[in-house]
Each structure stands twice: as structure tokens, then as C-alpha cells.
Amino acid sequence: MKGDLVWLSTVLLLLPRAGSCPEKCLCHIPTKSVDCSRQGLREIPLELPPRTQILHLQHNHIGDVPTSAFSGTPLLRTLDLSHNALFTLAPGAFLGLAHLQVLNLTQNSLHSLESKVFHSLPQLQQLDLSFNDIQELPVFKGDTLSRLTRLAIQRNQLQQVHRAPLASLPSLRALFFKDNLWKCDCHLLDLKLWLESFVYKGGITDGVICSSPDIWKGKDLLKIPYELYNTCLPLLGNGGSIQPQIPGTAQQDRPQPSQAQEQVDKSRSDCEPKAKARPVNLRHAIATVVITGVVCGVVCLMMLAAGIYGCTYAAIMAKGHGEPLSHTNEPRRPGEENGALAASLA
């Protein structure tokens, strides 16, 4: 209570220089918060209380945030700019907010972000960029956002993300990527490998749901078998070609830069995962076996009938020719033999 009275007296002393609570805002002294939401504002209000720690500016028509827009409130810890008309952010838009921990930029019209925008936010822990038109994440260099633990970028226009922007966030523990235009081809393999490591280390994510190609539409990137990306291996490492070092290979046997580039280009054209061949329908296979068996059975019966017919015909013919032969082979009587001999002599 005593601290609040001291803070109130300080504010009152600074009123001639810093001004009172803005006309369309509600200032709550005990919580050090200022609520300017749903007031139809088109720009950041001036003369905010200098010791403000929580500032609500959501549901307005603010179109841009100029450089040093919040220099008069250096103690801000939470800033809500959601549901506005932000199209771009000046590189120094948040300059001077060294204590800011929560920044909400959801439901705006942001198309791109420069990494410089976040250079002055060393204490930022939560960043919400959902429901915008962002097509690419910036690369956060150095200690930028080194304490960020939660990043939400749902419902944007992202198709591909390399691991570099995410690997530069060492404290990241929760990542929300759902409802983007993810193209699950070879260029997303790098993100798949990084996400697997991120989840293995205890990270939380809502998954990357593929929008294309059609064979993976609606599938979670983490659940696509790694083997289907074998053709993508030359593209690992931010799109570069990786050539394994083979012991004993002569220098002249290595492909020249132009040849390597041709190989990479060929890999890029063929890098989309190929669909598995569909298994043969079981009904078709059974029908084929049945038809084949019937045909074979008919052929066997025809052959059996032909054999029986041939044997019967052969028996009949043998019987017909056998009767005359039986008469010629009968033994003659002694008298008949002598008479025949005498006739031949005469």
C-alpha cells in the first residue's frame, strides 16, 4: 500500500511533463496497467503514464508502430497490439522496452518481419504472431530473443522454414505452427529433423500439417516416414549439396562445381517424395486364381477325353486288322500240306 502511494505521488509530480491518462484510455494505478482497447485508435496514444507495465491496445485500427513509439513507457512488461491493422513494424518500433516479456501481435496484416525489430527486447519470453500474412521467419542473430520460451505463428502463409531461425532461439520450449501452407517436399526435411530433436528434448509443438503435395495433404510432417526422403539427402544443410568424403577417391574424380550444381538441380526437380505403389486388390487376385484354375481344369479334361478317344480308336483298329492275321497263322493239317506240295510240283 505504501509503495502504491509513493508511485501515485510520483505520477502526480510528473503530470505537468508526462501528462495524465490519455483521454480514451483507462489507467489502473494499483496494477500499473493502461487499457486503451476498443477505442477506435489509429495510432499509439501519447503521454502514457511513464511507469506503465501493462498496456492494452487491442481491437483498434492502428496501422503502424513508428520508431521509439513506447520510449515514454520503459517499464512495460506486457504489450497487446492484437486485432489491429498493422502492416509493417519499423526496425526501432520497440526501442527502449528492455523489460518487455509478453508481446501479442496476433490478428494483424503483417507480411514480413525484420530481425532488427526484436533487437531491443532482451527479456521477451512470449511472442504471438498468429493470424497474419507472414511468409518467412527472420533469422534472429546474436542474443536476440535469447530468452524466448513461447512462439506462436499459427494461421500465416508459411510454406517452408529452415532450422536457422529456430536454432537461434536457445530457450524455446513451445512452438505453435498449425494452419499454415506447409509444402512437405525436400525443402522441409530440414525442419522435420529439427522438430524431431526439439520434441525429443521436451519441446511442445502442435505439429506441421501438410497442405501439399496431395499425397501428404492433412498429414503431420513428423509422422511421414523418413525413408521417403532418401532422395532429399543432397539438399540437406540449408539447401546446399552434401558430398560424402570417400577414402581413396582421387581429386580428379570429384565432380566439378558445374557438375555438382547440375546434380543439385536434378535432385531439386526429383525431390518430392514418391507415393508408394498400391497393393494389388485381394479380390482381383482371387478372381484371377479361380479363372486360371477353371481354364486349366477344362484343358485337362479335354486332354483326358482326347487320350481316351485315341486309346479306344487304336483298340478298335487293332482288333479289325488282327482277325485276318489269325487265319494265316493257324497250323495246317498234314494232309493239306502234302497236297499243296504235290500241286506245286505238278
Topology, element by element:
Blueprint: H1 2-18, E1 26-28, E2 33-35, E3 54-56, E4 64-65, E5 78-80, E6 88-89, E7 102-104, E8 126-128, E9 150-152, H2 163-167, E10 174-176, E11 182-183, H3 189-200, E12 204-205, E13 210-212, H4 257-269, H5 282-328, H6 334-345
Parallel strand pairs: 2-3, 3-5, 4-6, 5-7, 7-8, 8-9, 9-10, 10-12, 11-13
Antiparallel strand pairs: 1-2
Q: In words, what does this structure look like?
A:
This protein is 31% helix and 10% strand. By secondary structure, it is of the alpha/beta class. Strand 1 and strand 2 form a beta hairpin. The longest helix is centred in the C-terminal third of the chain and has 47 residues. The C terminus is likely disordered.
